Task: structure prediction
Amino acid sequence: MRDLLSYLFKRFIWMILTLLAVYTVSFVLMRAVPGNPFSGERNVPPAIERQLKARYNLDAPPIQQYFDYLGGIVTDFDLGWCMGLEDYSVNQVLAEGFPVSATLAIFALVFAIILGVTAGVISAVYRRSPADVALMAAAVLGIAIPNFVLASLAILLFVFTIQIFPAGGWGTLQQIALPAFCLGLPVAAYIARLSRAGMLETLSKDHVRTAFAKGLPKRTVILRHVLPGAMLPVVSYLGPAVARVLTGSLVLEKIFALPGLGSHFINAATQRDYTLAMGMVLTYTVLLFVMNTLVDISYAIIDPRVKLQ
Amino acid sequence: MPESLSQPDAAPSRHGEPLLQVNDLQVSFKTDDSRVRAVRGVSFDIYPGETVGLVGESGSGKSVTNLALMGLVPSPPGRVDGGSVMYDGKDLLKLSPLQMQSIRGRRIAMIFQDPMTALNPLMTVGQQLTEMTRLHLGLSRRQANEKAAEMLELVGISGASRRLRDYPHQFSGGMRQRVMIAMALSCEPDLLIADEPTTALDVTIQAQILDLLRELQERRGTSIILITHDLGVVAETCHRVLVMYAGKVVEKSDAGPLFASPQHPYTQGLLQSLPRFDQVQTTLRAIPGQPPDLGNLPEGCSFRSRCPLAIDRCAREEPPLASVGDRREAACWVAEENANG
Ligand SMILES: Nc1ncnc2c1ncn2[C@@H]1O[C@H](COP(=O)(O)OP(=O)(O)OP(=O)(O)O)[C@@H](O)[C@H]1O
Ligand code: SF4
Ligand SMILES: [Mg+2]
Result:
């Protein structure tokens, strides 16, 4: 317990430092590219541009902007007004979009884990069988096909040809299913390969032979003595998997017209919505940190030899 | 009659029925370009309450022979090609997986060579000890825990009930091997196969473990097959000895006569390479030359290229295991000739 608390404390300090670094780099990068949110095609009268700049504190010297904005975030979690969406604060946009993106990501991940692990275990247990060959061929395909191609194909197939899913929208399980499937499939494919390799490696371990020598039924040996060890690489991969699902969902949400952060993110990038972009970058940083911490803790729970540090 | 602690008891009488009869056992492994014949017609009997030593250099087929008895030859690439293992009126090689499960661990238990890797690192020692007794003896969780603690005490692990909650990495190598022994003995098997149970351990602990096995055997009348590289251990522990070479048993004898007058040139070589009988740390690799390629065996006697006594016949015909004295057999033309005048 002491270990866990000190680990969590250390992770927290690291997260704060990382956030500060991410904030700084993002701030500099955004200012480094020429132009600002109000330049470009829209020709804003100079008076209004001045007014806008004042509202967003863009007329202050950059150093002061840096600290003013940072101060707002630290004291009030206030990420300011969106520069691209009039009359929306960044916090509002995040509060509306984040639950959608998070729900989609969770569905995709759970789907990927269940499908990937099942496929990997079957492949390994029935090694070299037709099932193994078919599953692993599918996994290679699944890894190779980019999300958006998969999404287009899926829409073509399930929405237009055999109409069993709606093309877009949000709220019902049916509406979540297709994007979650497209988002999760490549991750499932990767998890399938990791699980298969993990299973085969663990199956060849001496202690598994011991388990068989004890007279345990094959099912018990597989589930109790092989599966946990085989899942360690999968657990390690969950950190990157979360990142992958989150970035993938940015594109997929646009394709499926989902009201998540994805469409905002793309708008924020194209319209130089500094504040919204910053809000999203920081949110995702926190999210990844939390996920990786959970992954580390799960790993340590499965493998008692591992000490959290 | 007082007996020195370091000598095995007199061999138990072999008038009764053998516990286990291995007949012409054959096991092979498929490799890229050939079939490695790891066990080539091995036969032996194990009687109740005796300890049989199985010696032979690395790769001679000791482990594979015993894995075959347990139905644990890894397949693929391994395959049992023939023979029978009679136990309790049944051929173990013909049992269904389910029937075999009720023999493994319950009637025949095995201790593996490397205690560092033979236990599951992700489960507590208690979980690993109790899953067997719950399965085979139908104990409740509480009974199984009590039994597990009792077994750990028996093999000399103190604070046993506390240590049940520990993981294998919290035990030293010697302690892990004790845990393995406790596990193997927890269902009171008829036969214990100990595959180099002390190789990875230092000499003091090695002696402790062997004493432990001997003591447990006396108490329960368990038969033991002891696989080892160490002739010192054999002299100290075994009633009978099987010497294996290139997948065959080349000499079979009671322990005393074997050490006094080895019949097979390979056994003679082994004993010569053992400078003194009381020297404990002696491996069997000291005979010059290499064992033959089991995937591509030469004609005639497989020991011929290393044999100082080889005659013409050895190149043409492979010698069968034949009687060379009272309860002694050797697979060697010269030994057979000498014995039969
Ligand atoms: N899993 C396997 N795959 C291929 N060949 C194997 C396998 N296991 C054993 N063999 C072969 O079977 C032969 C006998 O091996 P075995 O393990 O029985 O030897 P051993 O007498 O126990 O040796 P050691 O003293 O080193 O333990 C070896 O030549 C080895 O190449
Ligand atoms: S049969 Fe011939 S080669 Fe083989 S051990 Fe005897 S003497 Fe040596
Ligand atoms: Mg071996």
User: Anything to note?
Assistant: Chain B touches chain A at residues 70, 72, 97-98, 100-106, 109-110, 112, 114, 117-123, 131-132, 135-136, 167, 169, 180, 183 (CB under 8 Å). The CA atoms of residues 193 and 225 of chain B lie 5 Å apart.
